[in-house]
Design goal:
eight-stranded mixed β-sheet, Rossmann fold, 308 residues, alpha/beta
Length: 308
């Protein structure tokens, strides 16, 4: 009887018995540190804040770091400054990728109240029909200032970064990235300054320019510009990463992106049609046009640019 009573009590004893601890969860990767530059001056554009992310262990002896210049820098690291309170968490993402990517620094360039005019590629914009330009200017006033913005980036900001941080100055280690209009200016930078930038990551590229309609005029102009620039004598073409979702604004992008993809496949003297290390386009069904979506996709895009 005593044995039966003890046996009946076993489940109750087990309920309160201290659980055997399992293996400890690995500590989160050190996200490195962010240095904030307030009101970085420029003779080309208005001053703005710049964040510079330095990886864990920076600077390591003998290491020169690749650099990714990213648009809308206020959205990259801190929820308190990010649009909608959701940051991309680029620092944690790169720290978690570890040896899958080469050692790098990220320069986050905050946008200004002239975001549209600074990010709209000037040469393709000027190539649009006059009526199409008038419609865009009525909706989003102001002529493009992207050429001035890129002079700020290449002639002022990049030299500062190269002087004050341990960077690799090689084209193959210098990239640009952004989302929406930031994707357009990143592509424009890689093509206008092909001797400076080795590639661009363009998330949810806003080909229509308009927020009200979905016109094709700018995409047509951009295709002509893209074909011309890639047809010039370039030792190596820039690596190009594109992606898009299927919800909210991103629902407008597939026909535009498909036209760009078709052009890249049709260029016979460049490796885009056969070599996936130079160009990649990815579709993310259900993804919307927001920071939360880009946060999920920034890792694979940076790995494409920075892969060892």
């Amino acid at each position: 009887m005593r044995f039966l009573a003890w046996l009946a009590a076993v489940p109750l004893l087990l309920r309160f018995w201290p659980a055997t601890p399992g293996p400890a969860a690995p500590p989160p990767a050190d996200p490195g540190r962010v240095e904030h530059l307030t009101d970085f001056p420029s003779k080309f554009v208005q001053p703005r804040a710049v964040d510079v992310w330095l990886p864990p262990g920076y600077p390591r002896p003998g290491v020169r770091y690749a650099v990714v210049y990213m648009q809308d820098g206020q959205n990259l690291f801190h929820p308190a400054t990010a649009y909608g309170g959701v940051a991309w968490e680029v620092d944690s993402t790169l720290a978690a990728l570890g040896p899958a990517v080469r050692p790098c620094i990220v320069v986050g360039i905050w946008n200004s109240n002239r975001r549209f005019t600074e990010y709209a590629p000037a040469k393709p914009y000027a190539a649009m029909p006059a009526a199409a330009r008038a419609r865009i200017e009525q909706e989003r006033p102001g002529l493009p200032q992207s050429d001035a913005y890129l002079k700020f980036l290449v002639k002022e900001l990049k030299p500062y970064v190269d002087k004050h941080f341990r960077t690799s100055r090689h084209r193959a280690d210098t990239f640009v990235a952004g989302s929406s209009m930031g994707g357009l200016i990143s592509l424009y930078a890689a093509l206008e300054y092909s001797n400076t930038f080795g590639g661009a990551a363009c998330f949810s590229t806003h080909w229509p320019l308009s927020l009200r309609e979905n016109p094709s005029d700018f995409t047509t102009a951009m295709l002509g510009y893209l074909k011309y620039q890639l047809g010039r004598t370039i030792v190596q073409p820039p690596r190009l990463y594109f992606d898009y979702g299927s919800a909210t604004l991103d629902a407008r992008y597939p026909p535009h992106q498909q036209r760009v993809d078709s052009l890249l496949r049709a260029i016979p003297y460049r490796p885009y049609h056969s070599d996936s290390t130079w160009w990649r386009t990815r579709s993310f069904p259900g993804a919307a046009h927001n920071e939360a979506a880009w946060k999920k996709r920034v890792g694979p895009a940076l790995q494409f640019l920075l892969g060892q």
